[in-house]
Design brief:
This protein is mostly beta strands. The protein is built from 1 helix and 6 strands. The model has no long low-confidence stretch (mean pLDDT about 85). It comes from Porphyra umbilicalis.
């Protein structure tokens, strides 16, 4: 929803290297976000930490712990940060 000004160039670079780039992490989109591109590269936009809020608008915490494995990345979201399991390969 709020891509960088050069998002198409960055996405093309990541897609062209999808055999070694498994995921792209960024932050500070207030509600956060996740998608996986057709190339298989996962994009995780983490919830804004300082301005995190519950759906009702109350202040909340948001952070995550990432665990890297040979064929997956597990993101254990805390507070209002969602959790994800990013996988690839067979």
């Amino acid at each position: 929803m709020h891509p960088a000004w050069d998002a198409p160039t960055v996405a093309a670079l990541l897609d062209a290297n999808a055999d070694v780039v498994r995921a792209y992490f960024c932050g500070h989109h207030h509600p956060g976000g996740y998608t996986v591109r057709p190339s298989g590269v996962h994009h995780v936009n983490f919830v804004a930490i300082l301005d995190a809020a519950t759906p009702a608008g109350a202040p909340a915490n948001a952070y995550a712990v990432a665990t890297f494995e040979a064929d997956a990345i597990t993101i254990d979201g805390r507070g209002v940060q969602p959790s994800y399991r990013l996988t690839w390969g067979a």
